[in-house]
Write a structure and sequence with these properties.
CATH architecture: 3-Layer(aba) Sandwich
Protein name: Putative NADH dehydrogenase
Distance between the termini: 26 Å
Radius of gyration: 19 Å
CATH topology: Rossmann fold
Structural class: alpha/beta
InterPro entries: Epimerase_deHydtase (IPR001509), NAD(P)-bd_dom_sf (IPR036291)
CATH class: Alpha Beta
Pfam families: Epimerase
Strand order of the largest sheet: 2-1-3-4-5-10
Family: Belongs to the NAD(P)-dependent epimerase/dehydratase family.
Number of helices: 8
Largest sheet: 6 strands, parallel
Length: 264
């Protein structure tokens, strides 16, 4: 049996590959958990600019986690996977990344005390078909295909990981019953400018951009994963940035409306 909390971009894609029982956040306290093999905690409220409710941020990332850990105390299982964020490693922290870091520490202490397999995953910048419309890639796509003007910062870099590579990594690490913290990314940094040029080349269209200075305090030019631990368990990303963006552009052309309405 496999449980899943969180059906946003990552959780919904993971559920396409696994037979899972989804537990809505509103039902966590009332749900009676049965014996299970795998638990995937993919809650992510707070990872977008529009997520500004700090009480909800705490509930989704810390309080709900504590509720689950109390419910499974004494149970034996193959893997408990927690989706954290690579932002916990940045010099400039957000409220969201701090809550994720608190959750990590709780899980590490729980793992040591109860001797259970807990896998904490720090994914880098995840992208793919149907990602949140507010993110950079969907915004560039709308600018290219609809002419929407967008504010654009060219210098910041990200380690872009295609969603299929992430979900494969989650499954692989859980099935290997790994313990501890794992970074999942390609190990290669790409700037916003590189992403823009690739999308323009693939789509054959030009974006309508307004160049501005950095929009976020934590934007930087050195944000890349060290995924050697995950590689030790046989996981490797399969998609280059170009290959992944080709998939996204193809999906946008087929389903442009998906890139205008938020998933959560």
């Amino acid at each position: 049996m496999r449980y899943l909390i969180g059906k946003g971009f990552i959780g919904s894609n993971l559920s396409k590959k696994l037979d899972v029982i989804h537990i809505p956040h509103d039902n966590i306290k009332s749900t009676r958990l049965k014996a299970f093999d795998y638990f995937y905690f993919c809650s992510s409220y707070g990872n977008m600019a529009t997520h500004d409710d700090e009480d909800q941020m705490y509930k989704a990332n810390v309080e709900d986690l504590m509720t689950v850990l109390k419910k499974i105390r004494g149970m034996k299982f193959k893997s408990f996977v927690f989706l954290s964020t690579s932002s916990v490693m940045l010099k400039t922290q957000t409220t969201y990344s701090r809550f994720k870091r608190v959750a990590e520490e709780i899980l590490l202490a729980y793992m040591e005390r109860h001797d259970v397999p807990i896998c904490i995953i720090r994914p880098f910048t995840i992208y793919g078909p149907n990602e949140q419309p507010e993110h950079l890639i969907p915004t560039i796509l709308r600018s290219c295909f609809k002419g929407e003007q967008m504010n654009f910062v060219s210098e910041p870099v990200h380690d872009y990981l295609f969603i299929d590579d992430l979900t494969n990594g989650i499954i692989s690490l859980s099935e290997h019953r790994t313990r501890g913290i794992f970074q999942l990314g390609t190990g290669h940094a790409s700037s916003n400018q590189e992403v823009l040029l690739l999308i323009e080349e693939i789509s054959g269209k030009k974006a309508n951009i307004n160049k501005v200075n950095s929009l976020r305090a934590y934007d930087n030019t050195d944000w890349v994963s060290n995924n050697y631990k995950a590689r030790g368990y046989g996981w490797l990303p399969k998609y280059t940035l170009r290959q992944g963006l080709e998939k996204v552009v193809e999906d946008y052309i087929k389903n442009p409306k998906k890139y205008e309405n938020s998933l959560i």
